[in-house]
Write a structure and sequence with these properties.
heterodimer; A: Rossmann fold; five-stranded mixed sheet; 12 strands; globular; B: alpha+beta; Dna Ligase, domain 1; six-stranded mixed sheet; 40 helices; disordered N terminus
C-alpha cells in the first residue's frame, strides 16, 4: 500500500522539482539537490539526575554547502523525524541563497521533550550532542543555531563543549548567543526591520509614497513591534494591530482610524507583548474582533503571527485599498488565498524573503565572532538594509522580467544560485 | 465597651502597672517560703504583709490566713463583705484559707471589686502555701528521724507513720501499690497479701467471669495488713528503693486533680485550663506522672480541646505532650462554662506543628519551620454569642428549604453584624490584639466538621483578612466584624447544601475561630509575604511521565497565598513537584512567560483593604524592597528566562517575571517543603495538603489537613462487572481522581486516518473543525479523543493542532497512543496547555490501547453513527477522520461516564444511565467561586430538558423544541433568560394554550432562580415560536436550527409523557 500520509520532505522535494523544471536544471543537479549532501544520525547517552542512563537520538543534516558553511538550527522535539530535519535543511539552503549570504543549509535535532528534562539533564544532552558530532561541524563547515525549544543557554553549553574538545575559542561555531557572549547587536530588530526594508523597496517600485500609506498588522510580538517602529519612522501610518489576550483566550484587533503611535501603544503593553484592553480603549483605541485586522482599509497588511491566517475563505474580506502584503510570519498565506491575491493583483512579499532579516543577522553574528570584533548596532542594521534591499530588488526584477509571482521568483532565484555554485565547483 | 479605650495608652500603662504589682507580690511570697529554715508561723506572718500591695487598692486592702486553729491577720483587721478567698489544700485536705478584704466598697469588676488576674494570684499563692506546709510537715518527720530516740526507724517508716495520722487513705493506696510492686518483683509471700487488699484475688478470679455484682468487703482487713506489707518490703527491698517508690506514689496522688478534672465531662474549659496551669506549676516543682497517667491526661486533653475523633486521637496521642497544651492554653479565648473545642483547622495546624518540631529526620531543615502567632476562639463561643443576643431560632435554620436559606442568608449576615459578642470574648480578643500588635490578621473558620479526614469544607466557610490598623478600638471593631461574619457563614446556603450532600446535616456543628497573624512584610503601603502557596503530598496533576505521585505538588505565588489556593481563570500560579524539582511544567520562553503570575494579592495598610494589584507595577515601584526578589524572578533575555546575576535585577529596565527559578534551584526551599510534606504524611498516616508562606526570613506553616478532594476529585469506585460492550475504554497510566459524569457526545479523531492525511493543510483543517465543535457542543458534556499530542504546533503529524481556546469546553482531553509498527508515539501530557487544563479542571487521560489488559472499544468509536455531517456540514469531507458520536442516540438514552481512581491507577469509561445526582455535584463543584457561571447554566439547561419532555406534542402542536443562547453555551449569569425555540404547527387556539402553559413554567422557574440567586425577574423563559415556513425560508430565528455556529440544541419532546 502506498503511504499517502503527509511527509514534509516529500513536499519540499516536490517544490524543488517544480523550480528545477522551470529552471531546466540538468538531471545531475536535480539528483544532487533533491537530497542532503551529508546526514549524521547518532546516539547520545545521557546520565539522568537519578543516576540512570537514557539514550537519545540526535541528527545533523547538511543539505548543501556549495555557497558556504552550512547554517541551521537545532530542534528539540519529541516527535522529531529525519524527514522533517531533511526538509528543513533544504529550506535553509534556499533561505540563505535568496538573501545572497555565503552560507549553505543544514538542520539538526534531538528527539526529546525538554518538559521531561531538568536543566542539568538538558545541559548534559547538549554537551552529548556536540561530543558526537564535534568533528563534523564547526565555524568553517557547519554552524548550529537555536530553533524549536532550544535557546541561547543551550547554545552556550554547546559552544563550551565544542571549545573544550578543540582546545581553543571558536565563538563562530554557533549563533544565537547573547550579546556580550559573542552575540550581535541588532538581532532583536533584524526581522521586523527586514520586513519593512522590503516593504519600502516594494512601495518605491509600485510608485507609492510611503508617507501616504496606512497599514494593519497581525500579531504584536517582536517582529511586528519593530516593523511598526520602522514603518512609523519612514512616515507610514499604522492604524490597526491584532494581539492575543490571555485572559479571554482570544485575539483582539486594536484600531485607531487616524493612526496610532507605537510608543503610546507600548505604554499599555506588558513585557509579554500583550496589550491591556481596557487601557488601550482609554487611549482611544477601538477594540475589534481578532480577525478585523485583515478587513482594514489600508494599503499594507503585515501578517506576523501564525501560519495559515489568510485563507481562501477570508481573502475576500481584504479591502480593495490593499496593494501590498508583507509576510512577516512563516507561511501566513494558504495556497487557496494565493490564487485570490494573484487575481486581485495584490503584491505579496513572500515569507522567506520578507523575514530573512533574522538569518541575515545570524550571518553577521558569525562574521563578527570569527573575527572576534563586534560592530556597533548602526553598522549591523546598515549592513542589514543593504542585504535586504539587494535581495528584494533581485527577486522583484526577476519576477517582473519573467512575469511570475513573487513567491515563485524568490524560489527560482535561490535554487538557481545554489545550482550555479555547485556547477562552478565542478560538482555537477 | 468604649470607656475601656477612651485613653488606650493610659489604660495600657495602668494594666501593666497592675501586672507588675502582682508579679512582685508573687516573687516576695516565693522568696519568703523558700527561705531556708523559716518557721511556718514566721512565713505566714510575713505573707500577711506581702499580700495587700499586690492588689489593685493596697491602701484599703488587708489580709488574713487561717491555718488549722491559728489565725494570722493584718493589723487593725476588720472583716468586710468585699473579700476574695482561696483554700489552702495539703494532701487533698483542707488545711486553711487565705483571704483578702477591701475595707471600702469599690466598683464591680470581674469578681466583685477584684480583677480576674487577682483571682489567679491568690490561687497561686494558696497553692504555694499548701506546698510549703506539706514540705514543712515532711521536714518535721525527717527532723524527728534524725533525733536519737527514734533513730531505729527508717526514713520511709517515718513517712508512713505520719501518713497514718494525716492521710490513711493515701496510706492504703501506697500499701496496695507496694504489694503490687512486690508481686511484680517476684516475691511469693506478697501474693498472699494481695488477697487481703483486694478480695477479688481470693476467689480465683471468679470476679471476672461472674455475672452478678461483686460484693466488696471492707477495707479494715487491708489496714491491718499494712504493717505486714511494709515488713515484707523492708525484708526484700533496700531502703532507697522503698523511699523512692513511696515518694513517687505520693506525687502521683498530688496529680489526681488533673485526672479528676479531665475525665469529668462536667468540667468546663476554664476548669481544664486552670488544672493545666496548676499542673505546670507543680511540674516545675518536680511533680512527675506515671506513664499511664501521663497518657491518660494527654488523651483527655486531646479529646476535650482538639477532637473527639478516634483517628485524630490515635495519631495525636503519639505526638503531643501535656506541656504542648500549656503553651496552647494561654492563647485560647473562651467564655466561662465553655465545653467547646478548637475545631478542625486549629487542631490540624497545632498537631502538624508539634510533629514538625519533634521531627528527628531532617531536623536541621525542619526546625526552620515556624507557625505564625495564633489565637483561638473556642467553638461553643458561637453559641454563647447566639444566646447572648437571643438568636436561638437561627440554630434550626439548617433544616429550612435551601431556597429559603438562600433568601434568608443576607438577613442573617445583617443580624450577626449588628449583634455584639459576649463581653468575656471581647475581653479575650482585646488581650489577643495587645499580643498581636497592629500586624494584619486573618480570621479563619475552624469548625468541628471541617478538615476531618475525607471531608473537605475547603472554601465553604469564610476566611477573612483584617488589616488591623488604626486605634485599638477600631482594630477591635473590625476584628469582631470579621469574626461574626465567619460565624454567619455557617448558616450560608453553600455549606448547608454541602452538609446535605454528605449526610452531615444532623451532625452537630460548631464554629471555632483561628486568628492568625498574616505572614509578611510592609512594603510601601502594602503588606504581603514574599511568596505563599499550597502544597500536596500526593501529585494529582503530573505533567511528565517521570513525575511520580509521591513527588508531591506545590502551587506557589508571590504575595498572599489566596491566588494559589483558588483556581484562577486569568492568572497562573507556578507549579513544581518537590520530588522532581528539575522538571518544570513550562520550558520554552513562550510558555514560561504565558504561564507566569501577573497579579499579586496584598493587604493595603493605608486603605485597610485586601487588594489584587499588577506585579509589574509593584516591582517597578518597590522591587528593591521586595524580600528575596533575586530568587523569585527571572530576567527575560533574548530567548530565555535567566536567574538575575549577583547585582540583582534592574527594576526599571529589565523584563522580569516570577518563575521562582532561583528559589527552586539555589535554595533548600523544595527540600524543606518535601521534608515537611513527607514527615506530615508519614506521621499523620494519610496524604495531606498544607498552606505556607515565607516572609523573607522564615518559612511558616499556616494550615495542614488531609489532602482535600474537591467534589469532582473524589476517587471513584472502579466497577469490575461491566459487560464488555458497555466499556468504551480503560486506562492505567497517570490516572488522577474523579468522575466525569453524563457525557453526551464523543469527538473522536481516528489516529489511523489522521496519519494518512496527505497535506499539512488537511491536518490544520482537522484542528479547525475541532475548534468549531468545541463551540457548538454543550460545555463539559463532550470529550475529545485523538492521536498523540493534542496541541502539536510545529510537527502536527502526530497530534491535532489546536490551542487551548479550541478545546476549552471539553470535559476531558484524551490522548490515544496507538502503536505504529514497533513504536508507540509519545503523549504530551497536555503540556502545551497543561496549566490551562489544571486551572479549569479539564481532565487529561492518556490511553495506551496496545497495553496488556487495556480495553479500547474501537468498534463503538468507528461504527456508531457519525453526526459531523449534521453538525458541521462544511466539514463533512472530514467525516472519515473526525467522528462525532451522540452517545444518547447510539445507546438508547444512555450517557458516557468516566470513572478515575488514582490510588488504583485505573480509569474506565462506561456507557450508563444518566446520573441525576451528579448534576448537583457538578453544580456544587463551582461553589467556592460564588459568581461562577456554571451553576446558572446547567440547571437552566436541565429545566429546558424537563419542559421539553413534558410537552404533549399533539395537544400543543409542537414539532420541535430547541434551546439556544446562554444556557446552551454555558454562559448563563444569575439574571440570564432561558432562550427556547419552539417549532410549532397548529391552530391559534393551540398556540394560545401553549403560551399559557409555558407562562406557568416561566414564572415558576423565575421563582426558583430568585431563591437560588436572589435576582428577581418577570419570568425566566424567552420563548420564540417558529413555523414550518420560517424554517423553510430560514428566516428569523429559524436560522438557529442547524446553524454552523451557535446552533440551537434540539431536545426530545414529550419523552416524559411516553413513559
Amino acid at each position: 500500500m502506498e503511504d499517502k500520509s503527509y511527509n514534509p520532505f516529500k513536499t519540499a522535494q516536490k517544490l524543488f522539482d517544480q523550480a528545477a523544471e522551470l529552471l531546466e536544471l540538468d538531471q545531475a543537479a536535480r539528483d544532487f539537490l533533491r537530497h542532503p549532501m551529508r546526514e549524521y544520525q547518532f546516539n547520545i547517552p545521557v546520565r539522568m539526575d537519578d543516576g540512570s542512563v537514557k539514550v537519545f537520538r540526535g541528527f545533523r543534516i547538511l543539505h548543501n554547502d556549495a555557497r558556504g558553511p552550512g547554517k541551521g538550527g537545532i530542534r528539540f522535539h519529541p516527535q522529531e523525524t529525519v524527514d522533517t530535519v531533511r526538509a528543513l535543511s533544504m529550506w535553509m539552503t534556499w533561505k540563505c541563497a535568496v538573501v545572497d549570504i555565503p552560507l549553505g543549509g543544514s538542520k539538526g535535532g534531538i528527539i526529546c521533550d525538554p518538559h521531561d528534562l531538568s536543566l542539568l539533564e538538558q545541559e548534559r544532552l547538549c554537551r552529548g550532542w556536540v561530543r558526537q558530532i564535534a568533528r563534523n561541524i564547526g565555524p568553517l563547515s557547519d554552524i548550529p543555531a537555536p530553533d524549536v525549544m532550544s535557546n541561547s543557554q543551550h547554545m552556550l553549553w554547546m559552544l563550551d563543549e565544542y571549545e573544550a574538545i578543540h582546545g581553543a575559542k571558536y565563538p563562530g561555531f554557533i549563533t544565537g548567543k547573547p550579546v556580550g557572549m559573542g552575540g550581535s547587536l541588532g538581532r532583536v530588530e533584524a526581522t521586523g526591520y527586514g520586513v519593512m526594508i522590503t516593504v519600502r523597496e516594494a512601495m518605491k517600485e509600485l510608485g507609492i509614497n510611503i508617507q501616504n500609506t496606512s497599514a494593519s498588522f497581525q500579531g504584536f510580538g517582536n517582529v511586528s513591534q519593530y516593523a511598526i517602529q520602522l514603518y512609523q519612522q519612514m512616515g507610514g501610518t499604522p492604524i490597526c494591530v491584532s494581539c492575543w489576550n490571555q485572559e479571554d483566550h482570544k485575539a483582539y484587533s486594536f484600531q485607531k482610524k487616524d493612526g496610532f503611535d507605537l510608543k503610546e501603544l507600548m505604554s499599555v503593553t506588558d513585557h509579554f507583548g500583550e496589550i491591556d484592553k481596557n487601557k488601550a480603549q482609554d487611549l482611544g483605541f477601538d477594540m475589534l474582533p481578532g480577525d478585523a485586522w485583515l478587513e482594514q482599509d489600508v494599503d499594507l497588511l503585515v501578517p506576523s503571527a501564525l501560519e495559515n491566517q489568510i485563507t481562501g475563505e477570508n481573502a475576500g474580506k481584504i479591502s480593495q485599498k490593499v496593494k501590498l502584503i508583507a509576510e512577516g510570519a512563516n507561511g501566513p498565506t494558504t495556497p487557496d488565498a494565493d490564487i485570490v491575491l494573484t487575481d486581485r493583483e495584490i503584491h505579496v512579499i513572500p515569507d522567506f524573503l520578507a523575514n530573512a532579516g533574522g538569518v541575515t543577522c545570524s550571518y553577521f553574528e558569525q562574521v563578527q565572532s570569527n573575527t572576534n570584533y563586534y560592530w556597533p548596532k548602526e553598522e549591523a542594521l546598515g549592513k542589514l538594509d543593504l542585504k535586504m534591499t539587494n535581495a528584494y530588488v533581485d527577486v522583484s526584477k526577476f519576477a517582473k522580467a519573467k512575469k511570475i509571482y513573487m513567491r515563485d521568483a524568490a524560489y527560482m532565484i535561490s535554487v538557481d544560485r545554489v545550482a550555479q555554485a555547485c556547477r562552478s565547483r565542478g560538482w555537477v | 465597651m468604649t470607656e475601656n479605650f477612651g485613653k488606650p495608652i493610659n489604660r495600657l500603662v495602668e494594666e501593666l502597672r497592675e501586672r507588675a504589682k502582682e508579679l512582685n507580690c508573687l516573687y516576695e511570697v516565693q522568696e519568703t517560703l523558700g527561705k531556708p529554715g523559716i518557721k511556718t508561723e514566721d512565713a505566714l506572718n510575713r505573707i500577711i504583709a506581702i499580700l495587700p500591695p499586690g492588689w489593685q487598692y493596697p491602701e484599703i486592702c488587708q489580709s488574713e490566713i487561717i491555718f488549722g486553729d491559728k489565725v494570722f491577720q493584718s493589723s487593725d483587721f476588720v472583716k468586710t463583705p468585699w473579700g476574695q478567698h482561696s483554700d489552702v489544700i495539703v494532701q487533698d485536705q483542707l488545711a486553711g484559707r487565705i483571704s483578702v478584704y477591701y475595707t471600702e466598697e469599690k466598683p464591680e469588676l470581674d469578681e466583685g471589686p477584684f480583677l480576674i488576674e487577682e483571682r489567679r494570684l491568690i490561687n497561686t499563692i494558696a497553692d504555694q502555701v499548701g506546698n510549703f506546709l506539706l514540705h514543712q510537715r515532711l521536714q518535721d518527720v525527717f527532723e524527728r528521724k534524725t533525733k536519737p530516740d527514734i533513730e531505729t526507724k527508717a526514713g520511709w517508716q517515718v513517712i508512713l507513720s505520719l501518713l497514718e495520722k494525716t492521710d490513711p487513705n493515701l496510706l492504703i493506696t501506697i500499701a496496695r501499690k507496694m504489694v503490687h510492686h512486690l508481686c511484680g518483683s517476684g516475691i511469693k509471700e506478697a501474693t498472699d497479701l494481695l488477697e487481703l487488699f483486694s478480695s477479688a484475688y481470693r476467689e480465683d478470679r471468679e470476679l471476672l467471669e461472674a455475672n452478678f455484682p461483686y460484693q466488696f468487703e471492707s477495707d479494715e482487713d487491708a489496714i491491718g495488713a499494712i504493717d505486714e506489707v511494709f515488713k515484707l518490703a523492708g525484708k526484700y527491698l533496700d531502703e532507697d528503693e522503698i523511699l523512692t517508690s513511696i515518694q513517687q506514689w505520693i506525687r502521683e496522688d498530688q496529680s489526681g486533680f488533673l485526672i479528676n478534672t479531665l475525665v469529668q465531662p462536667g468540667c468546663s474549659i476554664p476548669e481544664i485550663i486552670n488544672a493545666l496551669d496548676r499542673y505546670q506549676h507543680l511540674s516545675t516543682q518536680g511533680l512527675e506522672l506515671s506513664a499511664a497517667r501521663e497518657q491518660s491526661v494527654r488523651v483527655s486533653l486531646i479529646r476535650r480541646l482538639l477532637s473527639g475523633q478516634k483517628n485524630f486521637i490515635d495519631t495525636a496521642k503519639c505526638h503531643l505532650s501535656i506541656e504542648d497544651f500549656n503553651k496552647l492554653s494561654s492563647h485560647i479565648i473562651f467564655q466561662p462554662g465553655s465545653y467547646g473545642k478548637l475545631g478542625g483547622k486549629s487542631a490540624g495546624i497545632f498537631l502538624a506543628m508539634e510533629i514538625i518540631k519533634k521531627s528527628v529526620l531532617n531536623q536541621d531543615l525542619l526546625q526552620q519551620v515556624k507557625m505564625p502567632k495564633t489565637w483561638y476562639i473556642i467553638s461553643d463561643a458561637m453559641f454563647s454569642y447566639i444566646e447572648h443576643n437571643n438568636l436561638e431560632e437561627i440554630i434550626e435554620h439548617k433544616y429550612l428549604d435551601i431556597g429559603e436559606i438562600r433568601q434568608e442568608y443576607p438577613y442573617i449576615v445583617h443580624v450577626f453584624k449588628t449583634s455584639p459578642l459576649p463581653p468575656e470574648i471581647v475581653k479575650g480578643l482585646s488581650m489577643a490584639l495587645d499580643d498581636f500588635g497592629d500586624v494584619p490578621l486573618i480570621v479563619r473558620s475552624s469548625s468541628l466538621l471541617e478538615d476531618q479526614v475525607g471531608m473537605s469544607f475547603a472554601g465553604k466557610y469564610k476566611s477573612l483578612f483584617v488589616a488591623n490598623q488604626g486605634t485599638k478600638e477600631e482594630r477591635l471593631k473590625s476584628l469582631i466584624d470579621a469574626i461574626v461574619e465567619v460565624y454567619a457563614s455557617m448558616y450560608g446556603p453553600d455549606p448547608i447544601e454541602y452538609r446535605h450532600e454528605h449526610n452531615l446535616i444532623d451532625h452537630h456543628e460548631e464554629m471555632g475561630i483561628l486568628i492568625q497573624e498574616v505572614v509578611g512584610k510592609k512594603i510601601g503601603p502594602y503588606y504581603f509575604p514574599a511568596f505563599a502557596g499550597v502544597a500536596f503530598s500526593q501529585n494529582e496533576f503530573r505533567w511528565s511521565s517521570r513525575i511520580k505521585k509521591e513527588d508531591g505538588l506545590v502551587r506557589i505565588v508571590p504575595g498572599l497565598g489566596t491566588r494559589a489556593v483558588d483556581r484562577l481563570s486569568d492568572d497562573y500560579p507556578i507549579l513544581a513537584a518537590p520530588g522532581q524539582p528539575g522538571l518544570r511544567v513550562n520550558t520554552s520562553l513562550d510558555e514560561i512567560v504565558r504561564y507566569s503570575p501577573r497579579k499579586i494579592d496584598v493587604i493595603n495598610l493605608e486603605k485597610r483593604t485586601f487588594e489584587t494589584i499588577e506585579i509589574q507595577q509593584l516591582l517597578k515601584e518597590y522591587g528593591d524592597e521586595y524580600p528575596n526578589i533575586k530568587q523569585l524572578v527571572s530576567v527575560i533575555t533574548q530567548d530565555h528566562a535567566q536567574i538575575p546575576t549577583g547585582l540583582g535585577p534592574d527594576f526599571e529596565k529589565d523584563k522580569l517575571i516570577f518563575t521562582f527559578d532561583g528559589l527552586f534551584s539555589k535554595s533548600p526551599f523544595l527540600n524543606l517543603l518535601r521534608g515537611v510534606l513527607n514527615e506530615l504524611q508519614d506521621k499523620l498516616n494519610h496524604p495531606i495538603d498544607i498552606e505556607f508562606a515565607y516572609d523573607g526570613d522564615d518559612f511558616y506553616l499556616l494550615q495542614c489537613r488531609s489532602q482535600s478532594y474537591g467534589v469532582e476529585n473524589i476517587p471513584a469506585d472502579i466497577p469490575t462487572d461491566i459487560p464488555g460492550e458497555r466499556v468504551l475504554f480503560t486506562a492505567d497510566r497517570f490516572i488522577s481522581n474523579g468522575t466525569i459524569p453524563n457525557i453526551t457526545h464523543i469527538v473522536y479523531v481516528d489516529p489511523e486516518q489522521y496519519s494518512q492525511l496527505p497535506t499539512r493543510q488537511d491536518m490544520l483543517d482537522v484542528g479547525r473543525a475541532i475548534s468549531r465543535l468545541n463551540k457548538i457542543l454543550t460545555k463539559r458534556k463532550f470529550i475529545l479523543m485523538g492521536p498523540g499530542r493534542w496541541g502539536s504546533r510545529g510537527d502536527i503529524k502526530l497530534g491535532v493542532s489546536v490551542t487551548y481556546s479550541d478545546i476549552n469546553n471539553t470535559a476531558a482531553l484524551i490522548e490515544v497512543a496507538q502503536k505504529r509498527g514497533d513504536y508507540t508515539p509519545d503523549l504530551s501530557f497536555g503540556t502545551h496547555f497543561f496549566q490551562d487544563l489544571v486551572e479549569s479542571s479539564i481532565r487529561y487521560i492518556p490511553i495506551y490501547p496496545d497495553d496488556y489488559g487495556i480495553i479500547f472499544n474501537s468498534d463503538y468509536l468507528l461504527e456508531s453513527k457519525n453526526t459531523i455531517k449534521d453538525i458541521l456540514p462544511d466539514f463533512a469531507h472530514l467525516e472519515k477522520i473526525i467522528r462525532v458520536i451522540d452517545v444518547k442516540n447510539t445507546s438508547s438514552g444512555h450517557v458516557l461516564q468516566v470513572l478515575m481512581n488514582a490510588e488504583k491507577n485505573k480509569a474506565i469509561a462506561i456507557i450508563t444511565e444518566e446520573d441525576e445526582t451528579s448534576e448537583i455535584k457538578s453544580e456544587l463543584k463551582s461553589i467556592p467561586q460564588t459568581d461562577s457561571r456554571e451553576d446558572h447554566w446547567s440547571w437552566r439547561l436541565k429545566s429546558a430538558e424537563t419542559i421539553a419532555s413534558m410537552i404533549d406534542p399533539d395537544r400543543f402542536g409542537v414539532k420541535g423544541f430547541y434551546v439556544f443562547g446562554s444556557a446552551k453555551n454555558a454562559t448563563s449569569g444569575p439574571k440570564s433568560d432561558l432562550d427556547i425555540l419552539i417549532h410549532f404547527e397548529g391552530s391559534d387556539h393551540q398556540e394560545k394554550e401553549l403560551r399559557i402553559w409555558l407562562e406557568g413554567w416561566s414564572l415558576s422557574l423565575s421563582h426558583i432562580n430568585q431563591l437560588r440567586t436572589g435576582y428577581k425577574t418577570d419570568g425566566l423563559l424567552d420563548v420564540v415560536i417558529i413555523t414550518d415556513e420560517e424554517i423553510k425560508n430560514r428566516s428569523s430565528y429559524a436560522v438557529k436550527i442547524g446553524a454552523v455556529s451557535d446552533a440551537a440544541m434540539p431536545l426530545s419532546v414529550g419523552s416524559a409523557l411516553n413513559k
